[in-house]
Amino acid sequence: MPELKTVGLFIITAIAEIVGCYLPYLWLREGKSIWLLIPAAISLALFAWLLTLHPTAAGRVYAAYGGVYIFVAILWLWLVDGLKPTTWDLVGTSVALLGMAIIMFAPRGV
Length: 110
Prior knowledge:
The protein has 110 residues and is mainly alpha-helical. The chain has one domain (2-105). It has helices at 2-30, 37-51, 58-79, 87-105. Helix 1 packs antiparallel against helix 2. The protein is flat. The protein starts with a helix and ends in a 5-residue tail after the last helix.
């Protein structure tokens, strides 16, 4: 089940990144408290640390992570922003997840 562990770790990583960026957005654009920058910084530090937990090359991890990030961002659009994803959002997300799976789980001779 290393594939599920990898995808799960990517999902947690994406949530940490999105929260770390969303909280400053709330402060800058929605007039929320500047104190939101503290949990935002912690969340972004957590995001960076989580990316280091993968046992493969960093470049491959970053490339594959992007596909899962897109999936989580579209979920965020729906669950937090309250906007239902369009068909094109879902198609694009599917393509991104397929790309992630190819990058992370393709057989390697090395």
